Amino acid sequence: VQLVESGGGLVQPGGSLTLSCAASGFTVSSYAMTWYSQAPGKERDLVATISSTGGTTYHKKSVKDRFTISRDSAKNMVYLQMNSLKPEDTAVYYCKVQVGFVAYWGQGTQVTVSS
Q1: pLDDT tens per residue, range 94-107
Q2: Contact partners, residue 67, CB within 8 Å, separation at least 6
């Protein structure tokens, strides 16, 4: 199992980014997939999750109207569309999958929101 995030970068407040998570060793349509964020000095925090069927998504309250989790089963990819970015969204963003009792994480991608 491998997860590789990409798409982070420096963006101005109000801007947009799309994070990608490339999965290998399993199919994203078989498991719930989750994005987490970790700001400096803070714990890793769940941002959004998509069910194994893709029919159910959850976004934490502070991003609910700005971020959207999605997946492309054909490409075995998971995405996080991030709009109206705020400085407080600055963090390293991680993709995670739980396979049985084992949690697999990517290496993370840095998102910095600053003018």
Answers
A1: 999 999 999 999 99
A2: 47, 48, 59, 80, 81, 82, 83
